[in-house]
Amino acid sequence: MSFVITNEELKTLHAGSPAAEVKTAIETAATSDEDGKKQELLAKFLAASKEVTTLTKTPSNDVKLTLYALYKQGLGATPTKPGMLDFVGKKKYEAWEGKKGLKVDEAQQQYIDQVEELKKAE
Predict the structure, then answer these.
(1) pTM summary value
(2) Which terminus of the chain has a smaller tally of CB atoms within 10 A, N or C?
């Protein structure tokens, strides 16, 4: 099973997400996936990352931070530690750090579940 995604799709998958992180996640899933389950989960995860941007109700800051942390973990990304005066960046980093150690596929599933809950609440 192969997972093909164009460069244009990479650029638009998630607002503010570097395409390189998404590309790395796709390559990792493709090379370590014998039965296609990781690629299927990744496809659902990326679809959820698109869906979250279309919600009509704005999630709370805590939910946004959780989504950010799960998204970064789901891509296997490590954000850079923000500077002292970057208060928003610091909160995002702390949220990510709180999910540190979570397996990529677990983070992806938790992200999908969180987005589904948000969609139901609308």
Answers:
(1) 0.76
(2) C
